[in-house]
Amino acid sequence: MGCAASVYQVGKKKKKKGIIPEVSIFVPSMRVPAQCDLQRTLKGVIPKNLADKLTSTRNQILLIAQDTDVSAIDELQKALEEYLSLLVGLTRKEFGFQELTEFKWKNLEDGQEETSITNSWFELLSVLHMMAMLTLVEANMKLIPKNIAMTERVVSGDCMRDTVDLLLKASGYLDFCVQDVLVHLPPDIKNKLPKDLHQGILEATSNQALAQGTEIQLGLALESQNATLSVKRRLACEAVSYYAQTLCCLSGDNNFHGTAKKHLLFIKWKYLEAKVAAYYYHGIIIDKGTEPSCHVSAVCCFLAAEELLTESKKASLSFCLAEPVTRTPPAWGVMKHLNKKVPETAAKKSQMYGYLLDQEKNLRVLPDLPEFQLSLKPEDYTLPEANSTWDSEKWDIRGQSLKEHLQDCEVGVETD
Questions:
Q1: What is the rounded CA–CA span in Å between residue 85 and residue 180?
Q2: Half-sphere exposure in the Cβ direction for 71 (13 Å, CA)
Q3: What is the largest CA-CA distance in the chain?
Q4: Alpha-helix residue ranges (DSSP H) falling in 287-387
Q5: pLDDT tens for residues 337-381?
Q6: Which is deepest, 11, 161, 338, 407, by most CB within 10 Å?
Q7: Does residue 53 lie within any of the structural domains?
Q8: Residue 334 to residues 29, 135, 273, 399, Cα–Cα distance (Å)
C-alpha cells in the first residue's frame, strides 16, 4: 500500500485498491508503533500492573493502527491519550527511567523500516506526532464529502469551522513537541531521529496547519456579509506569511524525496494560491484611490494575480503527479471565487486603464503586500497528569524468583 493511501486511510474503512486519495489538508507522514518488549525491561522495576497496562495500551494502539478495516480515529486518539498518562511517568527524572526501555516505531511510507531509540522522551515525541497527524487526517476528512465524484464542491460553514479547530489542535501538538519535548533529548538522540521528527519539519507542519486554517477563514469571510475587503485582504496576506514561514522551515533540508518532496510541492502550490488572493484583494483596495498611480498599481496587482493563478495550477498538477499520486478536490471556497474573478478583473481593469499604463510606465511597479500581525496561534496543549499508579508510595514490587529470572534470560536469548 502506498504512503498516501496508508496515511489517508487511517481511521477509515479500507478502500478498494486503485482508489487515488483526495487531499485538501496535507498529512506529511504517519508513524505508528512497532512491536517491542516493554514487559521484559520493566519487569521488577515498576509495579506489574503498571507494566502490564503500559504494554497492553501500546499494543492496542499498534493493532488499531495496522488494521485499517476496523480502525477509527476517535478510538486511536483515546488510546493514545490513555497511553500518554502512563508514559509520562517514564520521563520523570526522579525515577531515572528515561533510558531504560527501547521503543520502536515505523513510518507507513517505509513499510518495515523501523526506528529504535532507548529514550522515553522519544516515545512521548512519537505519540504526540501521531496524535497531530491523526488530527490532520480528520481535518482532511471534514472537507471531503462521501460522494467524491461530485464535480461541484460545497463545504458547509460548520465543516469549515470544525476544520479550523482541528488544524489549530494539530498545530498545538506539534508546537508542544518543539518547545517542550525536543529540549529533553540529548544531541546524540536527536541525530538518530527520523526526518519526520526533526525540528524544522515539525515547525513546518505546525505553520502549514495555521496557514490552511487562515485560508479556510478567508473562505468563511467570503460567505459573510459582514466581512470587509480589509478583513479579506488581511487574511489573504496572513496566509502568505504562514506559507512563507513553512517554506523557510523546509528549506533547511535539501534531501527531498518521497513524501518530503510531495510536502514541499504542496506548500509551494498553496503559497502561490495564497499570493493570488492577497494580490487580488490588495488590488481591489488600492483601486479605490483616485490618483492615477493607484489605478496603475491596482492593475499591476491584478495582472500579478492572474499570472500567479496560472502558475498555481501548474504547481497543483506537479503536486498531484508526484509520488505517491493524489487528487486535489474541485475548486471550492475562495479559490473557486478567484478562478473566475481574477481573469475577469485583470482583463477589465487592463482595458479600462490601458491608457494610464502607456502614459505612466514608470509607475508600473508591483506594490509590496502589506504585513500584518499573525492572528492564528497553535492551540495550547499540556500533557495529561501521570496515572495515579506512578505514586511511588503505593508501589509494591515483588522480587523475581530464580526460576522467573532464568525464564526471562531464555526469552532474551531466543529473541536476540
A1: 16
A2: 25
A3: 97
A4: 292-321, 333-352, 354-359
A5: 999 999 999 999 988 987 777 776 666 788 999 999 999 999 999
A6: 338
A7: yes
A8: 27, 23, 10, 66
Distance of CA 52 to the CA centre of its chain: 32
Q: How many other CB atoms sit within 10 Å of the CB of residue 328?
A: 14
> Which pTM value belongs to this model?
0.89
Tens of pLDDT, residue by residue over 211-257, are: 999 999 999 999 999 999 999 999 999 999 999 999 999 986 666 66
The DSSP code for 327 is B
Q: Residue 46 belongs to what domain range?
A: 1-139
Looking at residue 355, its amino acid is Y
Name residue 338's amino acid. Answer: L
Q: How far apart are CA 61 and CA 90, in angstroms?
A: 18
How far apart are alpha carbons 316 and 281 in whole angstroms? 22
With beta carbons less than 8 A apart as the criterion, state whether 5 and 21 touch.
Answer: yes
Are the C-beta atoms of 120 and 91 separated by less than 8 Å? Answer: yes
Give bridge partners of residue 327 from the DSSP assignment.
22
Q: Give the integer Cα–Cα distance in Å for 165 and 379.
A: 9
Which residues are paired to 115 by β-bridges? Answer: 105
CB-based burial label for 291 (10 Å; 0-12, 13-18, 19+): exposed
Residue 43: phi, psi to the nearest 5?
-65, 130
CA–CA separation, 145 and 373 (whole Å): 34
From the list 382, 388, 391, the residue with the least C-alpha distance to 81 is 382
Residue 58's CATH number = 1.25.40.280
229-250 helix and 199-223 helix, angle to the nearest 10 degrees: 160
In a domain, 10, yes or no: yes
Strands (E), 161-223: none
Using left for φ > 0, alpha for ψ between -120 and 50, and beta otherwise, residue 271 falls in alpha
**How many residues are present in the chain?**
416
**Strands (E) located in 88-195:** 103-107, 114-117
Asked if residue 47 is part of any domain, the answer here is yes
State the Cα angle at 268 between 265 and 269, rounded to 5°: 85
The domain total for the chain is 1
Q: Reduced to 3 states, what is the DSSP secondary structure of residue 103?
A: strand
d(CA 256, CA 225): 43
